[in-house]
Amino acid sequence: MSLLIKNIKELLQVRDSNISVIKGKEMKILPSIKNAYLLIDHDTIVDYGSMDDILDLTAEEEIDASGKIVLPTWCDSHTHIVYAGNREQEFVDRINGLSYEDIANRGGGILNSAEKLQNTSEEELYTQSAHRLRNVIKLGTGAIEIKSGYGLTVEAELKMLRVIKRLKKEFPVKVRATLLAAHAVPKEFKNNKSGFVDLVVNKMIPEVAKEKLATYIDVFCEKGYFDLEDTERILKAGLEHGLVPKIHVNQFNAFGGIGVGVKYQALSVDHLEELNQNDIEALKGSQTMPVALPSCSYFLSIPYTKGRELIDAGLPLALATDYNPGSTPSGNMNFVISTACIKMKLTPEEAINAATLNGAYAMGIENMYGSITKGKKANLIITKEVPSYGFLPYAFGDNHIDQVIINGQII
Ligand code: NIG
Ligand code: FE
After folding, report:
1. Which side of the chain, N or C, has fewer Cβ within a 10 Å radius?
2. Is any atom of ligand 1 closer than 6 Å to the C-beta of 393?
3. Distance between CA atoms of residues 340 and 67, nearest Å
4. Closest to 267 measured CA to CA, from 218, 301, 307
C-alpha cells in the first residue's frame, strides 16, 4: 500500500535522521517545507519535498491536503492511562478548599485509585484503559508511555502491566511501559516504608524484569512519598535488572531529586514545577530530558514548570500530559501545547519540538518517531484548514485535527 499526500500547505518538523534531541536556542527552529508532498509506503515515510519537484509521482491512494498542515503525531512520554474509575469527588473537595496533600493525607489520592484498581478485573481495566487510548489517538497521539503505580501490590502491579502489554498488542500506536511501583506507600506499610521499598526492590523489580513487562523504572520522589535514599535504592535495583530510570520529581518540593536522577542516568526527570538553580546546573551536560506537564499545573493550580528558564539555559524540554485520575484527567496533547505557550511562554515552535521529537527522546523511540524523516514510521496529523501552525496553540480548546495516520493507515 502506498499513500501520497499532496498540496500540503506546510509540512512541519522535517529533520535528518541524525537529529535525536533539540536543545536551547535550536528549539525556536521548526524546519518545514511549504507547499509540500509526502509519500508513504506501507507504514513508513519514504519521500517528501516541494510540490514543484513532485514530477509524475503517484500512489495507490492520494489525499489532497490543500490549506492543511501535516506534522508528526504527538509523542506523549508520561501517562498513567491504566486506572480504574475516576476521582471526581476529590475534584469537588479541592474546589471546596482541600489541597491535593490534604486529600492524600486522609487516605484519598493515589491510595483511593489503588483500592479501586485492586477491586477491578483485568478485563474491565483493559476496557476502561482502551477507551482512553482510543480517544487520545483521535487527538493526535501516536506514541505513548504508560506507567503502573495504582496497584501497589505485586499482583495488582502485574495486572496493570499486563493491561499495558495488551494495549501494546491491540493498538497500532507505539507503547512503552514503566514500572512505578513506588508511587505511594500502601496502607499496610504505613509505618514501615522501608519494608515496602524492600518489596519493590526484592520482588516487584525482579519479577517485572523477568517477565519483560516494563522498559523503565519510575519513583515518586517527593516529601511524604519516597525520599532520596529510597529513590537511589529503587533506581539502582531497576538498573541492575535492565530498567532505565524515568522519575517523578520536584512536583511540590525541590530537595535534590533531579541530581539523583542525573546520577543514575535517568532518561527523563518529569514534573519540575519546583525548580532551583542547583537543579538546572545538575541537568547541564547530562543526557537527561526535563519533561513539563502543564495540564497537571492547570488542574491542580500549582506553579508551571519554568520551561523558559530551562530552554534559556541551553537545555532541551519535552511536554507530556501526565493523564491520570488525580492530577490530570485529560490526555489532550493539543491542550498541553497551547498551555505551554500561554502559561510557560514557549513559542509555538518550541512547544511543537517539545511534544514531538523531544517527547520521542523521553521514551527512547526517537530513531523511529517524532519527526518527518525518511525511514521513520508514518504517524501523522493532518490538520483542518488553518491560517498557520501558530493557529494551533493560539485558538486553544478547539479541535484542529482533520485526520490522524498511524503506521500509514488513516484512523
Ligand atoms: O504524576 N505525582 C504523582 N503521580 C501522579 C498523580 C497521581 C494521582 O493523584 O493519582 C502525577 O501527577
Ligand atoms: Fe505522573
Report:
1. N
2. no
3. 25
4. 218
| Distance of CA 241 from the midpoint of ligand 2 (Å) | 23
Separation of alpha carbons 61 and 322, rounded Å: 36
Closest Cα to atom 10, ligand 1: which residue?
A: 326
Find out whether 182 and 197 touch, Cβ atoms under 8 Å.
Answer: yes
According to the model, what pLDDT value does residue 106 have? 85
Residues of the chain short of pLDDT 50, as ranges, are none
Mind listing the domains of the chain with CATH numbers? 2-72+370-410 (2.30.40.10), 74-361 (3.20.20.140)
- Taking alpha carbons only, the member of 372, 368, 333 closest to residue 354 is 333
Distance from the alpha carbon of residue 272 to the mean position of ligand 1, in angstroms: 13
pTM for this one? 0.97
Cα–ligand 1 centroid distance for 11 (angstroms):
35
C-alpha of 74 from chain center:
9
pLDDT for the residue 107: 84
